[in-house]
Amino acid sequence: MVNSPAPPGPFDVDVVLDVVIRGSGDAGQVSEAAAVLAAAISSEFPAPVGTRSVMVRHGTSERVLRVAVPHTRYGQGRSVRIDVASRRVWAGRSPVELTRLEFDLLCFLTRRAGRVCGREELINEVWGLPDVKRGTGRGRTLDVHIRKLRTKLGAGSSLITTVRGVGYRLENDGRVRIEPA
User: Fold this and answer.
1) Least buried of 42, 63, 123, 176, by fewest C-beta within 10 Å?
2) What Å distances lie between residue 69 and 15, 23, 94, CA to CA?
3) How far apart are CA 167 and CA 118, in angstroms?
4) Is 42 exposed, middle or buried (0-12, 13-18, 19+ CB in 10 A)?
5) What secondary structure letter does DSSP report for 180?
């Protein structure tokens, strides 16, 4: 299955900030202050920073810095979008190739976001296997699939939390969205 790039969605839109620096007196000092601020912003956010000068009134100048902040900077990791009908997943705008079980596991966890899903519940519901018995190796299968899913989601891997001795929880922080089938 080949995923095409995701069309832009509300999760993928950068935040654009206009920072206004207004000063009276020497326009050169205002420009210098704007340059220092632009350099500081650029070191934190590697997005392009544009500036424009505006003469407000006699003796007062203004510099406006336009800063585009990528969505991965103001959230914890990339957003994940799941299209159930086409069985496609995107992390940010990048397509993510998942196996059938990885896709089913992600959907199952997403539909129960914020809730701990026990290991037995996951094996029963996603794999359709009977109860997990210690020492059967089926529990390791779940661990391997979770690890692969985290790796494939990249920066979004912090979405799935291990609850030691119980199971897994997909964080309910709005970063994952399921599109209706």
Assistant:
1) 42
2) 5, 25, 18
3) 4
4) middle
5) P
Domain boundaries, given as residue ranges, for the chain: 15-73, 76-179
CA atoms within 13 A on the CB side of 100: 2
Edge-to-edge strand ranges of the sheet holding 167-170: 116-118, 167-170, 160-163
Rounded to whole angstroms, the Cα distance separating 116 from 56 reads: 57
- The answer to whether residues 179 and 84 touch, using CB atoms and an 8 Å cutoff, is yes
76-179: CATH number: 1.10.10.10
Full-prediction pTM beyond 0.70? no
Residues 6+ apart with CB under 8 A from 154: 77, 78, 91, 94
Tell how far CA 171 is from the center of its chain.
Answer: 12
